[in-house]
Fold this sequence. Notes:
By secondary structure, this protein is mainly alpha-helical. The chain folds into 2 domains: 1-148, no CATH class; 153-271, no CATH class. It is built from 10 helices and 6 strands, in the order ααβββααααααβββαα. A hairpin with a 5-residue loop joins strand 5 and strand 6. The longest helix is centred in the middle third of the chain and has 22 residues, at 123-144. It is globular, with a radius of gyration of 18 Å. The termini are far apart. Zinc ion binds next to helix 4 and helix 6. Residues 100, 104, 130, 133 line the site of zinc ion (ZN).
Amino acid sequence: MRQAHLALGSPDLHLGRADVIVAACGRALRDLPDGPTFGVDLRALCGGATTVLAARLDRDDKVRVEADRVLVHTDCVESLAAGPLPLAMAERLAVLYLLHELAHLPQGIGDYAAVKALRERDETLVLQLDLAADHVAALALKHIEPNLGFADIKALQSRGLCDFPATKNHAPAARLRKARRMVSVCADVLLRRRGVLGDADGYVEASFGRGDASLALMQRGAGADRLLGLAKLDVPTLTALACAADQSQEPAAHVARLEQVVGRLVDAPPR
Length: 271
Ligand SMILES: [Zn+2]
């Protein structure tokens, strides 16, 4: 039986923000679900590890499981610690990051060389692996913090994506992948808040591309994929979607605007 849950947002005043964030990851590790979460047994994946440590990992690793500990790359912890978010939010984002990266291991893309090879082949494959890993992470956090609303956890993920914006260093296909991931999560939040999707109903993948005249919202991960919505895109709306993952000075407002755009598309009568 699980032990009484220790709330993630309970800072120990003797520790700095980074230490508190790492400690939250450690508590999450100890509270992981028994058995598979959306097909990924996170607890088994971590073996007997009971501690999380921040470390500067080589080979572009984001997370590494060792005998009795899980190492998470310092970059994630440091950027959340230095950022403006309230501590409880930063802790949950670090936990989501850790869970997402752990989920990538059994997906076969723990090795960044595999990610690079996949991206060269088809960025959509990476998008799909990311959305599935996001869903594993959200479900696991829901288990760890059952009082959180599932749509709120997904909303936290869209906020988290703002910290990994598309930059001028990203090729157009990579920028589009990141934009589609952001729009997917925003649509997921919207449809969940409207009661279209329940906690056990998989997740949303948004499909659109440069020059496309439509947006398709697909339901993934709950049996046969299903078309949730199809909307025509005018040029300003397509531009807004294509910029979804670009850097924003005001992430919360950016995500809210994006949810409005997606909401209008979902509400538009089919043409
Ligand atoms: Zn990923």
